[in-house]
Amino acid sequence: MKILVTGGAGFIGSNLVDALIEEGHEVVIVDNLSTGKKRNINKKAKFYRFDIRDKKLERIFKKEKFDIVNHHAAQIDVRHSVSDPLFDAEINILGAVNLLQNCINFKIQKFINVSSGGVIYGDNPELPAKENAEKGPLSPYGVSKLTIEYYLQFYNKIHGLKYTTLRYSNVYGLRQDPKGEAGVVAIFSNLMLHNKQPTIYGDGKQTRDYVFVKDVVNANLLAMQDGDNNAFNIGTGKETNVNELFASMKKIIGYTGEARYADARAGELQRSCLNIAKAKKLLKWEPMFTLEQGLKETIEWVKGC
Length: 305
Prior knowledge:
CATH architecture of the largest domain: 3-Layer(aba) Sandwich
Strand content: 15-25%
Structural class: alpha/beta
Number of strands: 13
Strand order of the largest sheet: 3-2-1-4-5-6-11
CATH superfamily of the largest domain: NAD(P)-binding Rossmann-like Domain
Number of domains: 2
Distance between the termini: 33 Å
CATH class of the largest domain: Alpha Beta
Order of helices and strands: EHEEHEHHEHEEHEEEHEEHEHH
Shape: globular
Number of helices: 10
């Protein structure tokens, strides 16, 4: 099949592109390189440096004739969305709708959408959160991700566009930017490997559900054939707080220092964890990597950066 991967030069998208090409698919990448890296681009993929908000995107759809669109391009920084909600909405809502409209105009078979289980449920008291849990995003980023899920329901009901939404927990792994604004595992790895002190915001007791990027890629591959018109949590079902994460990484790296603590950041959750029973049942997906295994692979990759 011929597959468009938006954000295919980014952290998760580039790992997905590699897997798709390895499986024999023809892949086209659209990425404006605002956060993606040229070095991440698979040489066997066709690359367009392009913004998903651009109305001229239709020219690429017309020329390439895709079977499936896998949408990973996004503004992913929760703090940036809080400080600049308009920018977040332009990319995460208007950019996605531009893609969806082109899917209808050019008869795309299926749209695979990346959402966030880490933010759309808000501070849900019933954890691990199920897909049908009450939604309560606490940031513009969470609002934008949930908004596109509603747009997908519209495009399916009115235009017949098939979709699968994957609600990621906190993804980490190879190619996550160790010098970026988001991605605690890569950031901590880079700092500790250079004997620098990491910063933990808040008291460090806030929890996340950390899922390895290779497991996330596998979920995307399975979603090409199954899970039509459904949303799935993609995580591990296990909570790990930041203090525990730091301690695990400290042991693997051999770092002898301590973290420093700073004020908690606006818009961030206290606890997050996803119930993955639905993905296990309908997608036949479950994570294969333990946190320790994933951390070791990620730290080895950061060493080579």
